[in-house]
Design goal:
The chain has 4 helices and 5 strands. The chain is an alpha/beta fold and about 150 residues long. Helix 1 packs parallel to helix 4.
Amino acid sequence: MNALVLGYGNPLRGDDGVGWVVAERLQGMAGITAVPLHQLLPEHADLIHTAVHVIFVDAAVAGEPGAVQVQTLAPDRHGLAASHQMSPGVLLAMAAELYGRCPTAHLITITGQNFAYSETLSPPVQESVYQVVGFLVAQLIGELVSEDANGRI
């Protein structure tokens, strides 16, 4: 597996489902495994260790609605003792501990506006979904093309 996108959140709580929506939009694209999730679980370490690159997508609460933040992630070994809340860093640490391999990883957050019961995203978050999906497709497909061309040009 080249790239793994884990989009998580509650699609029944408005903008909290933005990670889910991004993952759904990326499903079926070559070289990308996109998985919409309600929450991160320890079992996801098995998926993570097989990827070259992992991208987590989640909603943020604080900030300007629709704002996109990208953060480079590292394994969080200190959080391994807590089992009730799985963070991306803890899952990376689990992959490293259990499988001896931890891929590069990033967290993309999109600040939400509405977290009430709803199955639709607010307009600023919808716009950000288009931007994030376009960015990820360009970046991840670009990596595949350059890997395929490596040594043949």
